[in-house]
Amino acid sequence: MAFSVTLGLLLLTLGFAVDLQELETKISGPKEDLLRGLLWPSAWPLRSEHLQRMDESEDQEFYGQARLVTHIDDAAIGALRRYYEVHFHAGAAVLDLCSSWISHFPAVRLARAVGIGMNADELARNEQLTEWTVKDLNKDPTLNFEDETFDFVVNAVSVDYLVHPLEIFKEMLRVLKPGGMAIMGFSNRFFGTKAIKLWLEISELQRCQVVSWYFHFAGFRQIRAKEITAKGGRDPMYVVEGVKAPISDEL
C-alpha cells in the first residue's frame, strides 16, 4: 500500500513515529471503534496544501448539471439509512449538508428536513426535504440558521470535498441543539478531481481519523468512527460522528 511522503511527514509531526503500515494496523480495530488507541494532535494538523484539489475551477460549474444518480451501491445506501434510523427520532429537525436529489433518510416523521446543496434541480426533486437552499460551502462555510436549531446534521459521501472543514464543523456545532449529533458518512467513491489532496493520499481508515480531527478541533464530544459496510455490498461504508455537549456538561 503506497502512501505519500506528505502524509508521512504530517503523521510524524503529530508524534506518530511509526511507519504507515504500522499505523494502518493500529487503527484497524473493531468496526465499532476505529479510533481506539489514537491520541488527538495538540494543534490543528492540516495545512492549506492538504486541502487543495486537482481541479480548483468553480464548483458551481462542476455541479451545475444535475446528476440524478446514486454514488454508492444499494447495500451502502441501506447501511447508511439503517444507521440514521438508529439515531433519528420522530419530530427531529435534520440538516443535510451537500444534499442532492435523495437524502437516504429512514421512514421517520421529521419535523424539519433542510438540505443545502449545489444544484437546484437535484434539490427540488428531493421529496425527503421540507426545504432547501443552494449554497457553495467551499466559498462561504457559514450556515444561515439560528443557534441550536437542529437535532442532527448529516453529510453523505461529500465530506471529502470540503476545503474549509474546520469552519464548517464549527458552524455545525453552533446550529446543533445541546446533545445533538452530527454524522458524516462516506465510502471510497468520489470525484477525484474535487476531493481534497490529502484524501487521495491516505487509506480509508486514515480518512476516518482525519474526519475525527474535524470533529475534535470544532469542539464536539463523544467522537466515534465505525465501519457499517453491508454484507455482500460492493462499496464500503464508514461513519464518523460527534455530539454537541448537553447543557449539563456546559455548566
Look at the structure and give the CATH class: Alpha Beta
Order of helices and strands: HHHHEEHEEHEHHEEH
> What structural class results from the helix and strand content?
alpha/beta
Number of domains: 1
Distance between the termini: 47 Å
The Rg value, from CA coordinates, equals 17 Å
Count the DSSP helices.
9
Global shape: globular
Give a short overview.
This protein has helices at residues 5-13, 20-26, 59-62, 74-87, 120-124, 165-175, 197-200, 204-218, 247-250, and strands spanning 93-99, 112-117, 131-134, 150-156, 176-186, 221-227, 238-243. With 251 residues, it is α/β, with parallel strands linked by helices.
Describe this structure in words.
It is a single chain. This protein has nine helices and seven strands. With 251 residues, it is α/β, with parallel strands linked by helices. It has a single domain, classed as Vaccinia Virus protein VP39 (Rossmann fold), CATH 3.40.50. A seven-stranded mixed sheet has the order 3-2-1-4-5-7-6. Helix 6 packs across helix 8. The N terminus is likely disordered.
Summarize the SSE layout with pairings:
Blueprint: H1 5-13, H2 20-26, H3 59-62, H4 74-87, E1 93-99, E2 112-117, H5 120-124, E3 131-134, E4 150-156, H6 165-175, E5 176-186, H7 197-200, H8 204-218, E6 221-227, E7 238-243, H9 247-250
Parallel strand pairs: 1-2, 1-4, 2-3, 4-5
Antiparallel strand pairs: 5-7, 6-7
Domain Methyltransferase type: 120-183
Signal peptide: 1-17
Pfam family, one: Methyltransf_11
